[in-house]
Amino acid sequence: MADSNSTPFYHPEDKVPLPPKNAEVLTTCCDYCSIACGLKVYRWPVNSPDGGPKKSQNALNRNYPLRPGQGGWVGPNQYTQATHKGRLHNIAIVADHKSRVVNVGGGHSIRGGCIAQKVYNPQKPTQDRLQHPMIRINDILMPVTWDFALDIAAEVSKHVIKKHGESAWALKYYSYQFFENTYALTKLALKSINTPAVSQHDHPAMVNSVPGWVDIGYDIFSASHEDFSLADCLVISGTDPFETKTTLWNHWILKGIHGNNTKVIMINPRRTAGVAYAAKHGGLHLDVNPGSDTVVHMALQRIIMENGWEDKEFIKKWVANGWETDSGFGQGTRNTPWQWRTTWGKFQVKGYEGSPKHFKEWIYAQEESKPEVAAKIAGIDVKKLYQAAEMMAKPKANGERVKTSICIEKGNYWSNNYLNTASIGTLGAILGCGGRPGQVITRLGGHQRGGMSGGKYPGWKSPYKVPGRRRHRLDLDRWLESGHVRFAYVVGTTWIQAMAGSSALQDTFKRLVKLNPNQVRSFDKQTIIDTLKKRVDSGGTVVVNQEIYLRDPIGNQYADIVLPAATWGEEDFARANSERRVRLYSKFYDAPGEALPDWKIAAMFAKKMGFHGYDWKDSNEVFEETCRFSRGSRKDFNAIRVMARRKGMKAHDYLRSFGTTGLQAPLLIFGDKLIETKRLHDYNRKDIPDTGPQGVTITNKRLLAFKTQTGKLNLVKSPWKLWSDFYDFMQPKDDELWISNGRINEIWESGFDDYERRPYTQQRWPMNFIELHPDDAKKRGIESGDLVAIESKRVPVQTDFNLGVKGGDMWFSGLMKKGHIKLATGSLSAVAIVTPAVKKGVAFAECLHTSQPVNNIAPRVPDPITQNYRFKIATGTVRKIGESHFKHTFAQMTFKRRDIV
Amino acid sequence: MPSKQDKTPSKSGCMSRRAFLFRSSAVVGGTVVLTHIPGMEGEALAAEIARYPRMLIGKLSQLKVDKPVAFNYPDKGANSQSLLVKLSAEAGGGISPKHNVVAFNSLCTHMGGLMGATYKPADQVLGPCPLHQSTFDLTRHGMVVSGHATESLPQVLLELDGDKIYAVGMLGLIYGRHDNLKS
Question: What is the ipTM for the molecules in this complex?
């Protein structure tokens, strides 16, 4: 598979051609993390003269050599070759050194810096891109035509919908890979078919990652990147932006640390380079145990409130009181997607302070909010809690308030989803976070923001119910396991390894697909259709996988039909980044073989199924259709279409004219003026006319206030006991360790792509790894470079389609009692790295390694409040198998500490 | 401990000077010892070296463990700042009987930060880069340990002739240049 196509030893080049003066220049952005650095693509034909080192001789308009510190260098990994209009061209993809936003001065990450190697090049490891539609016949995937493949997919789909109902037709897809594609895919699934069996790459159901903030009223991407340089204190929970938000760290956070004396508090079990750097520059590392964040937040709140350090003025103006919380004919906080939460009264408070039913008194009444108790649960020195509270909230010597910002990512919300997000949200509320320069609360983001929905999710069709007559969205993994998915359309995600308890999930696919007796053994189209119909009628599943590479196992082992997708650089696309900046990603080379963009494939598929509304001629037409559905949203970009029409342009071309800067949404039009939005909840904003919305412009409440019925923040409780039964079960027993997992700098939001095919990345990370504390390693006789087996025989997997009737039915202990949790096994191998950078008792592996997936041992019991998986909370045993090849060679992998600063 | 497994024997039958030098590398203790680079056949290494100047940069007997010596290579032009260092551990491409003497260009390959004064003896690491904190493993061909660099640190190929250390070539492109031999 992929590994065999990678160069085992990286041999770096010592020269690279420069683009000549007449090279074509196009703009795009990096395809990976949510910062989305602006890039320039230089293209010139092979066998035409290269550029020279003088400014007058190259299209970069720069004198070579560049001086130290100057960005925008063309290194060997920024260069490749690709065909454009059938002719081979040289391609250089370089960070835009003229960028004034995002990657100011030409910054880039190790991932985006090497993005030229992503480009399909038949002479490089990307040569195994999917190029033709394929059908599995006699268990071998063989090329067929588009019509042949899609006729079969459409006929089987129609049969499934007619005979088994639309809920038997499932879409599992990426949430992020450009507006045009996500819109077309969801238009098919949600609008045309109207199935509830839809989920995105990172969740079992269509749910929000930060539900606590939804209830409180915080938008999850409200900040501008500049805010990170303006805070006095920056609290970063569950991630290290040094590793995962490179240019945000390199430009804005370092600017804050060095220019604004920003103190950075990192909440993370593991010490990475950013954590170490922050601590060295006056910051603090709260090295909490995995899953213990909520009590840390509650203790910080208690210390802050006991000292009277809360932002009283902000609370008075922007925190809802009891009447406001319950206003709107009793809807109040119940008017949320998680209505049932407040019906039980488990979360709602009557406002900030005044009675036992208010927030402050509730916190004071919790045993877990006592600093000593919280410190013990979190496994940290209690002094750090007092120190952190002072840094966040103690007034300055001159009496001024400390400007504190909070940002979070997956370590926070994929361990204890609801309680962590609720409690860090309320911490933000009492600190006055939200809507002011340097005083914001936001996600840092994972993938870029490329989701647009082409239809409304039919929540009423989901059969998943919990006590209180409340309904959950459909859990697709459990729906599949229960045998209800007869047709699975899997687009751009490794469904199996990307989900939790993935070994058990793989068993399910095997049972439903491979072990079903109805397998295709003929090239006759009707016979194939009849065979697959028999498969679905006998309780089996047909899988269609739409991808850029043949993925193992979803494509390689289970797909009946594989469809080749065209991607970044192979089509014009639009997308937003983590500060809501919308930009055009230009097509600059030919897609391989017959590969087509996902929107086009979805449209062809839909038309063959007999649906209307898919006659788009190009991606611009899809984009223009999506524009109006963005109105009023965080990334409202409808103004792009409106302004383009006024100018007689295509919307894509109008957006393209803003280059790597793009337009920061929500976009508003007043008269002829296009107005961008720097940050949300900006209640001091003055550029929106008092006259209110005009024409096509919607001024959503979140622009000038918070996202609740009153525009004020709703405080919510975070009762520890709602989590503690599951947490107790997951605690390491006997010789187990916490096996946490996460991203690393070199592979981050590029796992969906081609990192296995990059020799430069493969020399660094040829296998999955596991960081172990020296004491834990010594006890097990493990040294750096040893190959180890990581196993669990008690991976909890929630099974069966079941209904919650009584109060405790759907909590972990209730499910266990009723037999709805099975204990599965899971295992993976990894190369040991012994380092004091991880906490004793906690091991850490890369989260989405496809051939050594740590999700094999991740618990598949979603948060019962929110249906988010708790990927980071896994436990297992670690034992030595032997020595890895890398222990005794110098060419691949390094075992040096990653926290040297 | 890392051993010598990644030494690649030469396939060259020709006894040109470069090929001879490379073949010699498999015989530790010979009079002339050259950097051995994994994955590079004799011809490839010889071709790499043929473009570069042979430059005397120091004497083995004068190197002290963990005390880097600055030099310029392959010329004295922009960004040629390099370090010769005797490590306390064996290294890929290392010369000397202990295979612990290596040399690298000292500009960070991310954005050209100057790392000449950042050697960390305890870990045999160069960095963190003063600009954005990238670090590089000098025992493993300048591979990035942590950070943002899109290339390994360019390794200077070394040749030991008696006690004399010569720089004879480079693996990887120096930051800011488009060709190592054009400054």
Answer: 0.95
Mean pLDDT, to the nearest integer, of B156-179?
A: 95
Chain A residues close to B149, C-beta within 8 Å: 110, 113
Q: B40 and A11 in contact by Cβ < 8 A?
A: yes
Here the CATH number for the domain that contains residue B163 is 2.102.10.10
Q: Are residues A467 and A539 in the same domain?
A: yes
Q: Does residue A622 belong to any structural domain of this protein?
A: no
The answer to whether the Cβ–Cβ distance between B144 and A76 falls below 8 Å is no
Q: Using 50, 70 and 90 to split pLDDT, how confident is the model at A856?
A: very high
Dist. CA B40–CA A422, nearest whole Å: 56
* pTM listed for this prediction: 0.95
Residue A88 to chain B, least CA–CA distance (Å)? 21
In a domain, B6, yes or no: no
Q: Are residues A490 and A597 in the same domain?
A: yes
In a domain, A582, yes or no: no
The tokens describing A514, both together, are: 């491979």
Helix/strand/coil for B70: strand
Which residue is catalytic, options B36, B99, B110, B141?
B110
- Residue B95's beta-bridge partner residues? B101
Q: What is the pLDDT of residue A336?
A: 52
Q: Are A757 and A2 in contact (CB under 8 A)?
A: yes
pLDDT in tens, B58-92: 999 999 999 999 999 999 999 999 999 999 999 99
Residues of B in contact with A113 (CB under 8 A): 110, 148-150
The yes-or-no verdict on residue B31 having pLDDT over 80 is no
Could you tell me which of A302, A436, A432 has the C-alpha nearest to residue A367? A302
* Residue A42 contacts residue A89 (beta carbons within 8 Å): no
Exposed / middle / buried, residue A747 (Cβ in 10 Å: 0-12, 13-18, 19+): buried
Cα-based angle A795, A796, A799 (whole degrees, multiple of 5)? 130
Q: Is the dihedral of CA A894, A897, B1, B4 positive or negative?
A: positive
A775 neighbors A840 (Cβ within 8 angstroms): yes
Q: How far is CA A578 from CA A221, A406, A478, A693, B72, in A?
A: 6, 15, 31, 25, 43
Question: pLDDT tens-digit profile of A439-498?
Answer: 999 999 999 999 999 999 999 999 888 776 678 899 999 999 999 999 999 999 999 999
Please report which confidence band the pLDDT of residue B42 belongs to, taking 50, 70 and 90 as the band edges: low
